[in-house]
Amino acid sequence: MKRDTMDKIVSRLEHLGTEELRQLFMRLASEKGLLQEVFDALRDGLILFDADGSARFANKAACAIYNRPIKEMLREPFERLVGGTCTWEEVRNSGIAITRDLHVNYPEERHYNFLMSPVGEGSEYLLLIRDDTESLARGEEDAEAEQFNLVTYMAGAVAHEIGNPLNSLGLNLQLMQRKLA
After folding, report:
1. 124-131 vs 98-104, strand pairing mode
2. What torsion do the CA atoms of 127, 90, 103, 41 make, to the nearest 10 degrees?
3. Are residues 125 and 156 in the same domain?
4. Distance of alpha carbon 9 from alpha carbon 16, whole angstroms
5. ω before 165 within 30° of 0 (cis)?
6. DSSP assignment of 90-141, as one string?
7. What is the pLDDT of residues 2-52, one digit of tens each?
8. Same-domain check for residues 66 and 110
9. One domain, residues 141 and 162
């Protein structure tokens, strides 16, 4: 939120009555709860960092990916959360979205894609963690199936090309056999 917008809101708070403040607070709490539910419903992990590289927020998917409780995860340094694929200085100084891939072999083989992007006015950064393991496996299976289909097609074409001359030879041999008989 812009600084002047925040200043306007704060200056108007003094003129609100107790009931209006309570309603405003309840509305804000309700919206925060709704946003938390939306972020937690996402399949991809989300971690929000402040300008110093400290994690401020993480959704349930991020906690599941890292297999850690949220409080523990929010204390982890940025570089460890992205598996050393880049440094906080790289992200902060880029001013644009950065993407990195990380292949993990332990405790099970996984492939993650990290998208790090400045949000708002660039004072905070969002880390989006996508588990691409299944989609990469499907891609490999599709490539193997396509190769198998190509080999099958080629085998059929070769058999057809060899079969025609063999049939012609067979017919000619039968004709020669009839003439000889």
Report:
1. unpaired
2. 0
3. no
4. 11
5. no
6. HHHHH-S-EEEEEEE-SSS-EEEEEEEEEETTTTEEEEEEEE-HHHHHHHHH
7. 567 667 777 777 777 778 878 877 887 888 888 888 888 999 999 999 988
8. yes
9. yes
Predicted TM-score (pTM) of the model is: 0.66
Which candidate, 66, 48, 68, places its Cα nearest to that of 58?
48
Residues in Cβ contact with 66 at an 8 Å cutoff, skipping those fewer than 6 apart = 45, 73, 76, 81
- Please give the residue range of the domain that contains residue 141: 133-181
Does 1 score more than 60 pLDDT?
no
User: Which token pair is 121?
Assistant: 């006015």
Backbone angles phi, psi at 46, to 5 degrees: -130, 130
Q: Quickly count: other Cβ atoms within 10 Å of residue 116's Cβ.
A: 25
15: three-class secondary structure by DSSP: coil
